[in-house]
Specification:
Bound molecules: flavin mononucleotide
Order of helices and strands: HHHEEEEHEHEHEHHHHHEHEHEHEHE
Radius of gyration: 20 Å
Number of helices: 15
Strand order of the largest sheet: 4-11-10-9-8-7-6-5
Strand content: 5-15%
CATH topology: TIM Barrel
Number of domains: 1
Largest sheet: 8 strands, parallel
Shape: globular
Low-confidence stretches: none
Number of strands: 12
CATH class: Alpha Beta
Mean pLDDT: 94
Length: 381
């Protein structure tokens, strides 16, 4: 096998190792995947403006976020069903995040009990909350997350209903799998992945387990997979969240400067500008298009993070130049996970760390604090 030198190489390996319906779940967007493509285009259309003859013999790519120092301006984004990519996938991602000294965001739709992450992976962990129709489930998860050492709650606000994921619908993607002849062939052609699944067992949404019985109700599982969330959740309900989560509260999935203003008024601690990697509202703007306006709205006291489409050090440096405090990685680290488990995630994070440091050196910027919007030019070609 040739050496993997980019996120794209890990993507190719993930694609080879995963059955088609799993790769499509990882890769796909909503509807026509317009926003999925737009995320990349918006990043690619920006150019970086370097300065020459600056001492870049030492580069500092560390950041401070919510009172913690991290080695890199990166966070592993919350993703559901990570054990479909590698056995105990949540743990593998969390351990790699700890090794790289960056935060890991654990999804409500994860496959490891949430207590296992701080206990077995250490590091700085945030818990991503989905509020389902039954709000008691969210309350229980918040209490458990706080008791087990998560330092921030990330409320995802762009899933009032599920996006229309055409690839998943075409593939009949659901759990447990319904074995059709086509799927049987797909699985048979990916024996290494199948062996992992047999070893780890069919993933389920263990964090939706009823506290009393320890069982995950099938209804709750179905609801999560259909992403049928509490679609009546509104800004006033943030006080309910606050009652159960007094610590750092981040909203993920903000694309409208008006919402950023409301978040500030509601005392939110941080924002993630995100369109969920193009998986929710298709035809939404790219995160990088709205980022400057949102940063201008909230000022520099509230950290603004960003995700959707980041695959390279240059992509990340562009976002930081525009004022983002950090970038969340969704698919980039999932490609590493699906290709080679924890080792693969380590390798992707190392690639990106080197890439960021090299980019800063080439830019003539020895520390992230010296990046500024003037470093980014919209391409005219
Ligand atoms: C397979 C997959 C599962 C995801 N699951 C969740 C989730 O459970 N909760 C959530 O807030 N976001 C979820 N997301 C969105 C990511 O957190 C993130 O916003 C997105 O992946 C960023 O785009 P990128 O993949 O281009 O980096 C998921 C994304 C993917 C690709």
């Amino acid at each position: 096998m040739s050496v993997s030198i980019s996120v794209g190489d890990f993507r190719a390996r993930a694609r080879r190792r995963l059955p088609r319906l799993i790769f499509d779940y990882l890769e796909g967007g909503a509807d026509e995947e317009l926003t999925l493509q737009r995320n990349r285009r918006a990043i690619e259309l920006l150019c970086l403006r370097p300065s020459a003859l600056v001492d870049v013999s030492r580069i500092d790519a560390s950041i401070e976020l919510f009172g913690q120092r991290h080695a890199l301006p990166l966070v592993i984004a919350p993703t559901g069903l990570n054990s479909l990519f590698w056995p105990d996938g949540d743990l593998a991602l969390a351990r790699a995040a700890t090794a790289a000294n960056i935060p890991f965001a654990m999804s409500s739709a994860s496959n490891a009990r949430l207590e296992r992450i701080p206990a077995e992976a250490g590091g700085v962990n945030w818990f991503q909350l989905y509020v389902m129709g039954d709000r008691k489930t969210a309350e229980r998860m918040m209490i458990r997350a706080q008791a087990s050492g998560y330092t921030a709650l990330m409320l995802t606000v762009d899933v009032p209903v599920g996006g229309y994921r055409q690839r998943d619908l075409k593939n009949g993607f659901k759990l447990p799998f319904k074995i059709t002849p086509g799927l049987a062939l797909d699985l048979a052609l990916h024996p290494r992945w199948l062996a992992g699944l047999l070893q780890g067992g069919m993933p389920s949404f263990v964090n939706l387990a009823d506290a009393g019985t320890g069982k995950t109700s099938l209804e709750a599982q179905a609801a999560l997979l259909n992403r049928s969330m509490d679609s009546s959740l509104v800004w006033e309900n943030l006080s309910w969240i606050r009652r159960h989560w007094p610590g750092t509260l981040i909203l993920k999935g903000i694309l409208n400067p008006d919402d950023a203003r409301l978040a500030k008024e509601h005392g939110i601690d941080g924002l993630v500008v995100s369109n969920h990697g193009g998986r929710q509202l298709d035809a939404a703007q790219a995160s990088m298009e709205v980022l400057p306006e949102i940063i201008a709205t909230v000022g520099d006291r509230m950290p603004v993070l960003v995700d959707s489409g980041f695959r390279r050090g240059t992509d990340i440096v562009k976002a930081l130049s525009l004022g983002a405090r950090a970038v969340l990685l969704g698919r980039a680290t999932l490609y590493g996970l699906a290709a080679d488990g924890e080792r693969g995630v380590n390798a992707v994070l190392q690639l990106l760390a080197d890439d960021i440091v090299r980019t800063l050196a080439l830019m003539g910027v020895p520390a992230l604090g010296q990046l500024a919007p003037a470093r980014v030019i919209r391409a005219s070609l």
